[in-house]
Amino acid sequence: MSTFQPSVSIVVPVRNEADNIAPLIEEITTALDGRWDYEIIYVNDGSTDATGERLKAIMAQRSNLRQLRHSRSGGQSAAVRSGVRAARGVIVATLDGDGQNNPAFLPDLIAAVEKGAGRVGLAAGQRVGRKDTGFKKFQSRVANRVRNAILQDGTRDTGCGLKAFRREVFLMMPYFDGLHRFLPALVRREGYDIAYVDVVDRPRRSGVSNYGFFDRLWIGIMDLAGVWWLIRRKKPTPDVTEVNA
């Protein structure tokens, strides 16, 4: 086990993204080298292509690159959770592994959490100039409006993979499939502020989408109901002091 103690961990969930591995890692290092002590954690979510082999080859050259592997695909939320639990950094940043999320925005997200001095629990990327099909963009707009109307989380885009947060805050969240889409509402539930950073979307480099967006309406409705219930049932956290003899 390495004794390296980074201040920042970058978590990248991937499934069958072999051709996108090397270019994205190069972009991450370009964005972060010289700014933070960091590690990159790829969570290989049951890939059946050469994703694992590509990662192993780069790991031999980069000591701060780690690979976690799921024996079978558990989905994006499960992959993010595995990465965060294994992370050594106080701050964790995430991005999708398909190349649509530009790592150049990682410093802005990480800095927003740092500047929050403990008050900001999450910095959320908000996509502009999305490169999805018109139908997917329409579905996403409807889903985000419905979610915001019910949860009032003040977030126009929860589907963006570019996020940064305090690791301890994420681990306070109740885990369920789809958690990553409801982080703003759940982080607010715990009393933390949210910082927003506009990020520029770009086309996928290669391959096809392996994870769905929040356009799976019926699943989204069930999740909304559950998160709404969690928020309604939240009680104020008492101020606790220890009394000494």
Automatic annotation (TrEMBL):
One of its GO terms (biological process) is lipopolysaccharide biosynthetic process. One of its GO terms (molecular function) is undecaprenyl-phosphate 4-deoxy-4-formamido-L-arabinose transferase activity. Keywords: Cell membrane, Glycosyltransferase, Lipopolysaccharide biosynthesis, Membrane, Transferase, Transmembrane, Transmembrane helix. The keyword Transferase applies. The keyword Cell membrane applies. InterPro entries: Glyco_trans_2-like (IPR001173), Glycosyltransferase_2 (IPR050256), Nucleotide-diphossugar_trans (IPR029044). Residues 9-170 form the Glycosyltransferase 2-like domain. One of its GO terms (cellular component) is plasma membrane. PANTHER family: UNDECAPRENYL-PHOSPHATE 4-DEOXY-4-FORMAMIDO-L-ARABINOSE TRANSFERASE, UNDECAPRENYL-PHOSPHATE 4-DEOXY-4-FORMAMIDO-L-ARABINOSE TRANSFERASE-RELATED. This is Dolichol-phosphate mannosyltransferase. It comes from Bradyrhizobium huanghuaihaiense. The lineage of its organism: Bacteria, Pseudomonadati, Pseudomonadota, Alphaproteobacteria, Hyphomicrobiales.
